[in-house]
Amino acid sequence: MKALQAIFILIFSELISTQKPEVIPAKWDVLYEKETEKNMSLTIFRFNVEKQYSVARIIMSCNESTEHNPLLAVFREKVAILSLQVPLIVDNYEYSQVARTLCPFTEYKEGEAFTVEVTSSRPVHYNFRAELVHNFYLYNDSKRLVTASASEPVYLRYDIPNGVDSVAVHVLSNTTTCMTVSVQKIGCPVFDLPDNVNSMGLHQTMTTSATIPVEKSRMSSFYVIFVVNTNDDLCSEILSIKPNRPTKFPLRLKSFNVTIESSMKIFDYIIPIVFWACILLLVTLVVFVYHYFDGIWERRFLSRAYTHLEDNAQDERLRDFYEFKRMSEDDDLRDYDILTDCKDMMVVRAKVCCSTTLTVADLSMTPYETREMQYDVYKIALAIIGIFYNITVLQLIISKAGNLRQSGDLDECTFNFQCARPLWYFVAFNNVVSNCGYVYFGSLIIVMNYCRERSFRRLFAVQPTLAERYGLPQHSGLMTAIGLAVIMEGISSATYHVCPNNINYQFDTALMYVIGMLGKLKIWSLRHPDMVVSAYHAFGFLGIFLMAAIAGVYVHNMIFWIMFSIIYIGSMMLISLEFYFKGIWTLNIRELRNSIRMSWATSRHLSCIVPAYKARFFVILLLNMANTAVVVYGLDAHPKDFLSFLLIPFIGNLFIYIIYYILMKMIYREKIPKRAVALLIAAVISWTCAGILFNQRVSDWSKMPAISRELNKPCIFLNFYDNHDIWHLSSAFAIFFSFTAINVIDDDLMFVMRNTIRVF
C-alpha cells in the first residue's frame, strides 16, 4: 500500500508539472457526476474546512474503470496523504463503489482548504461526493446503528471518561456476514482496509456478536474500525470459492449496533473476590467444627467399644490362629491357591469359583505399613509429575499471554468477551480467579485426610486389634493423591483460561482424567486393599490414554475412530474381567478353553451361563452398554471436541461405580453414616448445578472464534462471574463433597469384624 501510494504521488507530481488541472470549488454533501480528462489530466476538488476537528467521508463510484484503467484519487491533508482506486480489488473481489473516512482535521483552521485529486489514464464517468460525519463520536450506553461494506469501511471515535478504568465495545448484528472489528489508538493513517486492519491494535472477527474489552491504561482514546470481509472464510470452517481473476461483486453490506459500556473498576473486583473468599472461610469453619465434634464422638465411641473389643479379642485370635494353621498345612492344592496379585496373602480360590462369600479379611493380609507404602507411591509420583507438567504449562501460557497482548489478535483465544474482566495481563481475570476453588478444596481434602489418618493412628495405638481385625483397612495415600490432583486441576485450568484455545485445552482436561482414575481406584481399594494397582502402571496407562485423546483433536478420519473403538472396547472387556473375577483369572487361551469346557460339562440345564455374582454382573453390563453407546456415538458424529467427548465416559464410569457401591451397601444392610448421607446429598445438588451450567456454554474452542462468540453471554453473578465461572465454583464443591463422602462412607464398619464384611 505504501509503495502504491508513493507511485500515485509521483504520477500526480509529474502530471501537475505538465498539465494544468481543473480546480472545482466543491461543497460538502453535494453529488458530483464528472468525467476524467484526457491525457491523465487532474481534476481537483477543493473544500473549505468549516470547523476544526471535523471529519470528512468520501464516496466514489465508477462502473467504467477497470483493473488496467483504474480511477485514482488522492486526498491531501496536512497530517497525511490518503489514496485509493476504483475499482477496489481485494483477493480478486472487485468493487466499483468505494468509501473512506478521512483523518479528522486536527491541524486545520477554519477557512483552510482540503483537496481531492482525481484522474485516470483514459476518460471514465464517475460519481463523487464528500460529506461531513456529524456522529463521529461514540458515547457510553448509547446504541449506534452503523452500516459498512467490504469496500466501505467505517470507523468511529471514543474517549474513555474520567473515573472509568476500562470499557467494553459491544457489536451486535442480525446477519452472519463476516466482519472484522478493530480498536486502534488515535492516529493517522487509520488501518481500515481488509488487508491491513489486523496490523494494529486489538481486533477480532464476528458474525452476530463481538465484544472487545479496552483498558484505559492501554488506550484512553481510540478508534473503533468496522471492516466487512470479502468472504466468510475467517468466520466459517467451510471455505468459499475464490475467483481466479478480478471479478465484480455486489456490495457486501452489514448493519449492526454498536454500544460501549463502562466495565467494573479494579476496586469493584474486590467485592466478588471477597464474597467467594468468605464462602471458603465459612466452609473452613464448618470443617473445623465437624472435626471438633468428630473428636468428641471418637473418644465416646472408643470408650464404649473398648470393653467389647477386649472381651472378644482373645477368642478371635485363637480361632484365627487355628484356622490359618489348618489352611497352611492342607495339602489339597485343588482347593487352595495363592494369588500372585496379593503378596503375603492366603486366599481361598474356592470362594470365588464356588460362589461362597469373599470377605475383606481375605484381601487384607498385608501389614498396614507395607500397604501404606504401596499407596503412598501415588501421591509421590503425582507430585513429581505435577511439578514438571505445570512448569511447562506456566512457561507456555506466560509466553502466550505476552504474544496476545503484543499482537492484539483476540481470535487466538475463545473468551466469553461479554463477561471478560481484564486485569494486568489477563483478558478475563474472572475466569482465572474462579479456579481458586479447586486449589482450596484440594488443599482441604489433604488436610482433612491428614487429620483422619492421625485420628486412626491414635485409635490403633490404643487398640491395635482395630487395625488388624476390624473395619476396612485404612490407607491415606490415594486420597492425598486425589487432593493433589484437584489442586493441580485448579492450576492447570487457570492457566488454560489465560488464553483458551484448542492447543492448550488439554491443560484443562488432563487432570480431570487423573481425578477420575484416582477416584475409581480409591473406591476399588476400599474392599480390595491388597489388590494394589501399581502407580507406575496406572499413570503409564493414563499417559497413553492422553496421547490418544490429543491425537483425536487433530485426526478425525474413520480409520482413527475404528482403531480407537477397538482398543477402547477391548480395554473395557479386560477391566470387566478383572472386576468380576477379582483378579482370579489370567489371560491364557488354554486355561480359558479348559475352564469353559469344565463349566459346560459340570453344569445342568445351561446353569454355567448364569452369572454367579448377579449384582456385579449387572453393573459390568451397564457400564459396558454405556461405554459402547458412547463409542457408537463417536463413530457416527466424529465430535471435534474429542477431549470432552472422552471425559464423559471417564467421569460417568466413576459416578456409576459410586452408585453401585452405595446400592451394594444397602443390599447387604450396611448402614451409611448420617454425615456421609449429608455429603452425598450436597454432592448431588452441586453436580446437578454444575452439569446445568456446563451445558450452558459461553464459548467453544472447537468452533471458529467468530462462531464461538455467538455463545457469549453477560455475567450472571455479581457482574463478575459468568456461567463457566459458576461451573468452576460448583464443580469444586461437588468434587469436595463427593470424595469426602467416599472417605467416610464406611465409618459404620469401624468396629465390625473384617471377616464378616463382604467384598463387592
Specify the CATH class of the largest domain.
Mainly Alpha
What proportion strand? 15-25%
User: Helices and strands: which structural class?
Assistant: alpha+beta
**Shape by Cα distribution:** elongated
Poorly predicted ranges: 330-355
CATH topology label of the largest domain: Rhopdopsin 7-helix transmembrane proteins
Distance between the termini: 75 Å
CATH architecture of the largest domain: Up-down Bundle
Mean pLDDT: 80
Helix content: 40-55%
Main sheet characteristics: 5 strands, mixed
Organism: Caenorhabditis briggsae
Protein name: Protein CBR-TAG-130
Transmembrane segments: 269-293, 380-398, 432-451, 533-554, 560-581, 617-636, 642-664, 676-694, 726-745
Membrane topology: Multi-pass membrane protein
Key structural traits:
single chain, alpha+beta, Protein CBR-TAG-130, 4 domains, 760 residues, Jelly Rolls, transmembrane, elongated, Rhopdopsin 7-helix transmembrane proteins
Report on this structure.
By secondary structure, this protein is an alpha+beta fold. It has 4 domains: 133 residues, Sandwich (Jelly Rolls), CATH 2.60.120; 129 residues, Jelly Rolls; 299 residues, Up-down Bundle (Rhopdopsin 7-helix transmembrane proteins), CATH 1.20.1070; 77 residues, no CATH class. Helix content is 47%, strand content 16%. It is built from 17 helices and 22 strands. The strands form 6 sheets. It has a 5-stranded mixed sheet with strand order 1-3-10-5-6, covered by helices on one side. Strands 2-11-4-9 form a 4-stranded antiparallel sheet, with no helix packed on it. The protein has a 4-stranded antiparallel sheet with strand order 12-20-14-17, with no helix packed on it. β5 and β6 form a beta hairpin. α8 runs antiparallel to α9. The protein is elongated, with a radius of gyration of 36 Å. About 3% of the residues have low confidence.
